[in-house]
Amino acid sequence: HATNKMGRGVKVGQNRTATFNMYGGEISGNHAGSIGYGQDGGGVCVRGTFNMYGGKITGNDIEKALNGYGGGIYSTGTVAIYGGTISKNTAAQNGGGIYATKDLTISGNAVITDNTATSGNGGGVYYSVSSPEKLMTVSDTAKITENKAGGNGGGVYYANSNDSASRYPMT
To answer: Whole-structure pTM over 0.85, yes or no?
Structure first.
């Protein structure tokens, strides 16, 4: 819970080499963004690899829009959610539950529910892609449900900065 730091609950890697595997437990009640700028990831900030097999990421928040994205998870690394729940997280801007810019897999019995992007997009998931190497996959019995956004994409907002969405598919 340090002031002016990214990833209030957990920060995974600075140079994209670290891996964090979450099998259970809870990352909750973390707060970012009362002062400063760029405090991404209220619950988890991923620069490496984050694998979630179970547990909860819940009740984390980013207070001010200028302070960052991803109430639950902010990722410029690789995220794979195979199980567990991401719920009741809030981002003042984009990505209430998850904000991701690289590979994102949501599968198994994963649930992303009741997250909010207060004034931005992607209440459940904000996925920003700029190259065809990046892919978002949702499969199995995974659910993205009952999320809210002040802008667009209550469930999922897909942002493509370079080309048409059809060229960079979300499966």
So the answer is: yes
